[in-house]
Amino acid sequence: MRPREPRPEIWFHRKVNFISAVKELWRFRVLGVAWAVVAPVVMMIAFSVLINRVTKINTGGAPYPLFSYLGLLPWTFFSSSLSTGGLSLVSNNELLNKLYCPREVFPIAAIADAAVDAVIATCVLAVLFPIEGFAPRAEIFYVPLLLVVMLMFTLGVTLAVSAIVVYARDLRLVLPLAIQVGLFVTPVVYSTGSITSSKPLLLLFSAINPLVPVIDGMRATILTGNAPEWASLGVGAGSALIFLLGGFLLFKRLETGMADIA
To answer: Is residue 4 in a domain?
Structure first.
């Protein structure tokens, strides 16, 4: 027997105004752009007011707000990718059992989202440079090479963490703390030279954390007009490639049991 439809008088009616809908979409768009910019700008101001006042950071003659912001951009991209992408599989565990697709799509989508926010946050430099009365140097053309290293490292770590968290759910509690610690062991608010002047230690630091030569390289090329430190960048690039291959292989190795555990 065919089911009877509800009486017309109890139907729910809603008129959608096109102009109101466009305004609502624009409002949420503005909020999204603001959120992508607020976090790094607030941290830059905090570092400039507090840390640089307590201890003077050697910036190579560049204004400290620019120095710290160029460190915050790569770090914010990495930390946002890891915090969201690392939990992307457990956050979408229902889809893992219902939707057939390569499971690495979830962490990669989180990285893509963080990349959009990073691009938006980079636009702040167009205002910050004139405010500080400072101009970027011509060696800025090295930046794409640095971005490739950053992306390889971020993708490898995010893939590995997202797969491990599926099997060890308690790591969700450790991840935010690890990201906070990582902020201070990465040269975001200070220069690498203020920690060590030893070349072997710098290379070791770059191998452990490829963001080190990326951030140092951005500051060197954009602020001081120097080429990246090729030895540390080469070590960082090789390490980032190992992180990428290792993270991908680990992800594929653990992928087969994800649907059962998730």
So the answer is: no
